[in-house]
Amino acid sequence: MDKLFTGLTLGKLDLPNRLVMGPMTRSRANDAGEMPALAAEYYSQRASAGLIISEATQVSALGKGYISTPGLHTGEQVAAWRTVTDAVHAAGGRMFAQLVHCGRIGHPSLYESGEAPIGPSAIASGERLFTGAGMVDHPVPREMTPADLERTLGEFVEAARNAIDAGFDGVEVHAANGFLLHQFLSDNTNRRTDAYGGPVENRIRFVVEVIEAVAAAVGPEKVGVRLSPGITFNGMAESDAAAVYPALARALRSTPLAYLHVLEMVTRDITRAIRGEWRGTLLLCAHPTPESFPSTPETGAAAVEEGIADAVVLATAWLANPDLPERIRQGGPYNEADSTTFYGGDHRGYTDYPTLGA
């Protein structure tokens, strides 16, 4: 475990340890997508992380996929996030904003326009959305046109610039978990017949274009990317993940990004293949076996020791343990997370977990 407490250079940031707080949706933003004041306390409590990655934050109104989630596409949203990053920095922390477009994982009820969500192809997820008034089916998305592709790429770029204006140290482009960029990668969600569909080199094209555009806008050293090979969340089913992800890593090698962040889903062979193609920093949320959920410091440390990963991404452990690095140093004890308070609500299960000294 000792290696987890050694420093790591990530882009131009010097991390004091290799323990990363993973992105976790908490559903506490208001209807305008603005973070609550309490979020500054929540994130700053966890500033001892080597790096904090924010909850998924939509790049546009049409990029929204869930109620009570934040954005980075209005001035008010930027100002609200600024209070969070100021608090994290005052506590000595570092923070990236995770940028997402949910694509087909959306619903007309989420948008003032009432329009259909968009996706690479007109294929519904088969999943359902909680609206606050009950569950509704995800509709069939509208297949994106060339104009939609150009506009959406621009929205990622603008949101990245807004993130830097909001005080974030960088951004993580979300190309995982069944959201829009992931939908382009997968052969069960992308049935396009143009330059963005079909063979692997076409399906990775839009993802690469978005990442390169964001990197050009804010600097590649301020950009990370999240991937989740083989995940089945949000109706995903990738038949050729073992070919897609090494190809994507290889295509990104010419852009000196801050990191790749891999959410492993019992796909250690793909993780090793990505590592073989990617010469930069690799963050890993390690799940090497079916029994390894949720990820633990031990599974992460083993991956770092083996050289598969450079840093460990943990998620649930950070919810209940704001002082997680110190608890790992001491071998525990650990607070148990209350799953009933994961989404929505007030300070309970958000900012009231005690530290070791409390």
From TrEMBL:
Domain NADH:flavin oxidoreductase/NADH oxidase N-terminal span(s) in chain numbering: 3-333
CDD domains the record matches: OYE_like_FMN
Gene Ontology, cellular component aspect: cytosol
GO molecular function: FMN binding; oxidoreductase activity, acting on the CH-CH group of donors, NAD or NADP as acceptor
Cofactor(s) demanded: FMN
Keyword Oxidoreductase on entry: yes
Keywords tagged on the record: Oxidoreductase
SUPFAM superfamilies: FMN-linked oxidoreductases (SSF51395)
Origin: domain of life: Bacteria
Enzyme class at the top of the EC tree: oxidoreductase
This enzyme's EC code(s): 1.-.-.-
Entry annotated with the keyword Oxidoreductase: yes
Gene3D superfamilies registered for this protein in UniProt: Aldolase class I (3.20.20.70)
Entry's family note: Belongs to the NADH:flavin oxidoreductase/NADH oxidase family.
PANTHER family: NADH OXIDOREDUCTASE-RELATED, NADPH DEHYDROGENASE 2-RELATED
Name the UniProt record assigns to this protein: Alkene reductase
Originating species: Streptomyces spectabilis
